[in-house]
C-alpha cells in the first residue's frame, strides 16, 4: 500500500539559512498534519491543512510557514533557522472526508542546523 | 491545557511475557485514542486505535482498553517477541472525523523484549 512520502530524508543547514520540507500524502487523503520531534521526545503538533486550507495551528514559530497545494502535497518552509530547530519533522496524512481521523505518518525529515 | 501522561517510560520483559502501557488524558472532550510504534530512525506506525464509544478493541496480540470515566487507556501486548521492541506512544485527540484532529502524544515507553 502507498505510504506518506517525505523529502528530503536528511537536511543539513547553517544558522539563519532557510529550509523547505515536502510531504506527499497517501492518495485520496485530503488532510496533512506536520509534527516536530526533538531527540528523545514525543511528536509535537505544528500545523494542519484540510482541502488546501489551514485547519489548525499549534506551537509553530512565526519563522515557519506551510501550505497545501492543489495536488494535496504540502510544504513546510522554515526561515532564519536556529540550532534549536534541529529535529525530526514528520508529516501525517488522514482521509478526513472518508475516514475517522486516523493519521498515518511518513518516515520523517531529519533536519540538522549547525 | 491538553495533556497525556504515559507510564512506564521504560519496560523490559522476557520474550513470551505480556506488556502493559498505561496513559491518562486530561481533556474530557478527547474521544479518539491511537497507539503508535516507533522504531529507531522511522516514523510512528499506527498499530491500533479506539474510540470513546468502545471499551476494548483487540487485534491479534494487541489490545487496547479505555475507561472514559477515569480518562485512562491502556495498551496490552501478549506473547511479546523481540521484534516488538520499540518506543510506543499513546495519543489523544478530539477525533470527530473532521480536520482538526491534532494528536496530543504521551511521552513514550521504550519497550525492550529480551530473547
Compact summary:
The complex is a heterodimer of chains A (114) and B (115). Chain A is mainly beta. Helix content of chain A is 0%, strand content 50%.
Pick out its properties:
heterodimer; A: 114 residues; mainly beta; 7-stranded mixed β-sheet; 11 strands; 0% helix; B: 115 residues; 6-stranded mixed β-sheet; 5-stranded antiparallel β-sheet; globular
Strand content of chain B: over 45%
Shape of chain A: globular
**Low-pLDDT residue intervals, each spanning 5 or more residues of chain B:** none
What is the H/E order of chain B? EEEEEEEEEEE
Instruction: Please give the number of β-strands of chain B.
Output: 11
Oligomer: heterodimer
Distance between the termini of chain B: 41 Å
Helical residue percent of chain B?
A: under 10%
Taken as a percent bin, the fraction of beta residues of chain A is: over 45%
Between the first and last Cα atoms of chain A, what is the distance in angstroms? 37 Å
Number of helices of chain B: 0
Structural class of chain A: mainly beta
- Average pLDDT for all residues of chain A: 94
Largest sheet of chain A: 7 strands, mixed
How large, in whole angstroms, is the Cα Rg of chain A? Answer: 13 Å
Q: Helical amount among residues of chain A, as a percent range? A: under 10%
Q: What structural class do you assign from the helix and strand content of chain B?
A: mainly beta
- Please report the number of helical segments of chain A: 0
Describe the protein's architecture and organization.
- The complex is a heterodimer of chains A (114) and B (115).
- Chain A is mostly beta strands and 114 residues long.
- Chain A has strands spanning 5-7, 10-13, 19-24, 31-37, 44-50, 53-57, 64-68, 74-78, 87-94, 104-105, 109-113.
- In chain A, the strands form two sheets. In chain A, strands 2, 4, 5, 6, 9, 10 and 11 form a seven-stranded mixed β-sheet that branches.
- In chain B, 0% of the residues lie in helices and 53% in strands.
- In chain B, strand 6 (56-59) and strand 7 form a beta hairpin.
- The N and C termini of chain B lie far apart (41 Å).
- The chains are: A mainly beta (114), B mainly beta (115).
- At the A-B interface, strand 4, strand 5, strand 9 and strand 10 of A face strand 4, strand 5 and strand 10 of B.
Amino acid at each position: 500500500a502507498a505510504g506518506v512520502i517525505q523529502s528530503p530524508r536528511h537536511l543539513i543547514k547553517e544558522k539563519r539559512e532557510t529550509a523547505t520540507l515536502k510531504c506527499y500524502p497517501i492518495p485520496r487523503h485530503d488532510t496533512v498534519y506536520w509534527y516536530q520531534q526533538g531527540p528523545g521526545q514525543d511528536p509535537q503538533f505544528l500545523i494542519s491543512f484540510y482541502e488546501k486550507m489551514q485547519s489548525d495551528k499549534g506551537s509553530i514559530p512565526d519563522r515557519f510557514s506551510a501550505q497545501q497545494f492543489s495536488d494535496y502535497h504540502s510544504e513546510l518552509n522554515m526561515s532564519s533557522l536556529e540550532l534549536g530547530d534541529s529535529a525530526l519533522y514528520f508529516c501525517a496524512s488522514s482521509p478526513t472526508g472518508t475516514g475517522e481521523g486516523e493519521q498515518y505518518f511518513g518516515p520523517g525529515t531529519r533536519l540538522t542546523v549547525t | 491545557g491538553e495533556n497525556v501522561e504515559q507510564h512506564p517510560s521504560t519496560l523490559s520483559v522476557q520474550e513470551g511475557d505480556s506488556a502493559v502501557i498505561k496513559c491518562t488524558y486530561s481533556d474530557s472532550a478527547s474521544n479518539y485514542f491511537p497507539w503508535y510504534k516507533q522504531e529507531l530512525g522511522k516514523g510512528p506506525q499506527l498499530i491500533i486505535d479506539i474510540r470513546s464509544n468502545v471499551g476494548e478493541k483487540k487485534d491479534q496480540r494487541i489490545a487496547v482498553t479505555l475507561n472514559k470515566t477515569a480518562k485512562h487507556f491502556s495498551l496490552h501486548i501478549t506473547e511479546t517477541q523481540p521484534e516488538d521492541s520499540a518506543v510506543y506512544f499513546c495519543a489523544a485527540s478530539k477525533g470527530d472525523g473532521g480536520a482538526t484532529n491534532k494528536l496530543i502524544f504521551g511521552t513514550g515507553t521504550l519497550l525492550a523484549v529480551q530473547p
